[in-house]
Amino acid sequence: MPKCNLPHDHGQAIERELEHMPSVENFQQVADIFKQLGDGSRIRIFWLLCHCEECVMNLSSMVEMSSPAVSHHLRQLKAGGLIVSRREGKEVYYRAADTERAQLLHHMIEQMVEIACPSA
What we know:
Shape: elongated
Protein name: Metalloregulator ArsR/SmtB family transcription factor
Strand order of the largest sheet: 1-3-2
Mean pLDDT: 88
Domain HTH arsR-type: 22-116
Strand content: 5-15%
Largest sheet: 3 strands, antiparallel
GO molecular function, one term: DNA-binding transcription factor activity
Radius of gyration: 19 Å
Number of strands: 3
Distance between the termini: 43 Å
Number of helices: 6
Keywords: DNA-binding, Transcription, Transcription regulation
Organism: Candidatus Flavonifractor intestinipullorum
């Protein structure tokens, strides 16, 4: 980020931190990832896929949603790079991507559930 002269000095010396601030594009990428998790059903599906590999029909049964609705969420998660799929015959199986991003989000979801619902 270019050097910034702030109009008011509040004694925080934030200017040094501004030099290391990620770009607007970096923050937009993070926002796009969080959009992926902006739906409770999608979070549940992602969480399940962090623990198993499943087909649409079984996922639909697990989350008590229609297959088209689950497929919609799977497309969004896959487009966001959070899940991957593989075909075996006519069946397609989904699982969480083996990436640092997916692992971090999985961990964050579990921590947030524990904080928000400590008796769960």
